[in-house]
Amino acid sequence: MLGLMQDTPLTLSSLLDHAARFHGEVEIVSKDPGGLTRSNYAQVAKRARKLAAALRRRGLKEGDRVASLALNTIRHLELYYGVTGAGGILNTVNPRLFPEQILFILRHAENRMVFFDPAFGKLLEPLAAQAPNVETYVCLSSVQEMPDLLLPNLVCYEDLMDVEAEGAWTPVSENAGAILCYTSGTTGDPKGVLYSHRSLVLHAFIATSADGMAVSRRDSILLVTPLFHVNAWGIPFSAAMCGAKLVLPGAAVDGESLFNLMRAERCTFSLGVPTVWLGFLDYVATHREELDLSGLALERILVGGSAAPRSLIERFDYMLGVYVIHAWGMTETSPLATVGTPLPEHAFLDRQARYDIQALQGRAIYGVDLRIVDADGAPTPHDGVAVGDLQVRGPWVVQRYFKGEAPATTEDGWFPTGDVAKIHPNGYLQLTDRSKDVIKSGGEWISSVDLENAAIAHPDVREAAVIGVPHPKWQERPLLIIVPTPESMPNKAEILQFLASRVARWQVPDDVVIVDALPHTATGKLLKSKLRETYRSYLDEATEPA
């Protein structure tokens, strides 16, 4: 009889045990209100075991949900492993959501405990009476840092951690739930996605692969992506797997703070949404003469959350020699589904051709399948021309939302993403729009993403959004809304002429609106639903006689 391999469970606690044993001395740095806190994998493992013991002592049972409202700090990282190591499920809640959405999540997930940063205590006070399922609130602080709050059964984190023995991990199946994340909920109530230990470990394997994020022991990672946002794109697990240094910026994610922290900690890799990097580049451009760029060790950044403008890719290359890696995913895909790690043949491309490749959303990683379908649900060819609704499936793609009665997938097992895309013959994904954002004008489709990328290439445009607004003749017409770059005075006619040289004439927006800021979701994406509501009568009003 043929032999079989050992059946070792793939659990998050095994990841941290590996990190403590083989690279326990590797630093984990956190920028906290009082300054930098320095720890390492061995210390995080020790404290996570203490947290697991403390939670069991308070009656936490396997499968119980524990919420966190916290930023990127070492204490929040300890929750990732301590809660799951006690057999519980960590529900990372986005503190930037509306209070009504936070309350919905606390109640829907039936969280027994809530761990929170001191800054979010006042946010929780008016919600506590409406969330009777929450038995204990834990402030992620020392006794000295505790704010004066009116919360029932309020406990200090460091008091909770004051246990003599570290204790052992609670044995769980690798298929047990570990982390629960909710979608942003821009339309309707947020939906919960529950990730198993196994899916998160498999995701970490892919992230550390050379054709994934290529995370390795040589990296110092500035983790700008919030820990409350889709497991910070899996970095807490992939970094522990390979022993990469972690740098956690806390609340300070402005351009100056990120630059200084990145330089001081010799960060080689960083991850974040485009809006963060636009602010970072603006800071570097404005202070270029006084900055010591020679001390910057940054080699590459990964951009996700929304499409990275081509101009952002170009600016990172020209200004800092940093390679931008585009990736795509969703809360429902854990999130990594595609990644634009360069292929060998790209080394021979000229800059402009390489930027064309980098502007795409990358290729599917192992385990993930992609397809595009037409309006009837029939698959369309991957020829780089056909456009359809993007669907995905894989071992870390949602099958059913948390507490959902119906499957989240089609009858044949594919998850509809809500994105409109094309897939090129070489496997590269190109998102053309969200299905709800594509503009139908005179029977033809116009991609808002293409127009936004073209607009941001103009030197006076810092950020752009394109929406479809009602039109009596053409059904919809595109409206361009821009935020200008610092100290610039954009000319509307000049911007429209600029776009006319880059897109078809009939796709050029009917007008340009200049604003100080654009609305974003809690995860940094453009909030186009709000823009559509604000400007739904714009063309009618603009054409009314005086």
Distance from N terminus to C terminus (CA atoms, Å) equals 89 Å
In terms of quaternary structure, the protein is single chain
Q: What's the level 1 CATH class of the largest domain?
A: Alpha Beta
Rg from C-alpha positions? 24 Å
What spatial form do the alpha-carbon principal axes imply? globular
How would you portray this structure in words?
The chain is of the alpha/beta class and 546 residues long. Helix 11 links the parallel strand 13 and strand 14. Helix 1 packs antiparallel against helix 2, helix 1 runs parallel beside helix 8 and helix 10 packs parallel to helix 11. The strands form 5 sheets. It has a 9-stranded mixed sheet, with helices on both faces. A 7-stranded mixed sheet has the order 7-6-5-3-4-8-9. The radius of gyration is 24 Å and the shape is globular. The chain folds into 3 domains: 159 residues, 3-Layer(aba) Sandwich (Rossmann fold), CATH 3.40.50; 183 residues, ANL, N-terminal domain (Rossmann fold, 3-Layer(aba) Sandwich), CATH 3.40.50.12780; 105 residues, 2-Layer Sandwich (GMP Synthetase, Chain A, domain 3). The protein is 29% helix and 24% strand.
What descriptors fit this protein?
546 residues, Rossmann fold, seven-stranded mixed beta sheet, single chain, alpha/beta, GMP Synthetase, Chain A, domain 3, 25 strands
Please summarize what this structure is.
The chain is α/β, with parallel strands linked by helices.
Blueprint (SSEs and pairs):
Layout (H helix, E strand, L loop, with lengths): L11 H12 L3 E6 L2 E6 H17 L7 E5 L4 H12 L3 E4 L6 H10 L4 E4 L4 H8 L7 E4 L14 E3 H4 L16 E6 L9 E5 H12 L11 E4 L11 H8 L2 E4 L6 H10 L4 E4 L1 H13 L13 E4 L6 H11 L2 E7 L6 E4 L11 H8 L4 E2 L4 E5 L14 E6 L21 E9 L5 E6 L4 E3 L2 E3 L1 H9 L4 E11 L3 E10 L7 H9 L10 E4 L13 H7 L3 H6 L3
Parallel strand pairs: 1-11, 3-4, 3-5, 4-8, 5-6, 6-7, 10-11, 10-12, 12-13, 13-14, 24-25
Antiparallel strand pairs: 1-2, 8-9, 14-15, 15-16, 17-18, 18-19, 19-20, 21-22, 23-24
